[in-house]
Amino acid sequence: MANVTNKRPLSPHLQIYKPIPTMVMSIVHRITGGALYVGTLLVAWWLIGAATGQAYYDWVNWILGSIIGKLVLLGYTWALLHHMVGGFRHFVWDLGYGLDKDVSTKMAQASIVISLCLTVLVWVIGFLIRF
Question: How many domains does the chain have?
Answer without folding.
Answer: 1
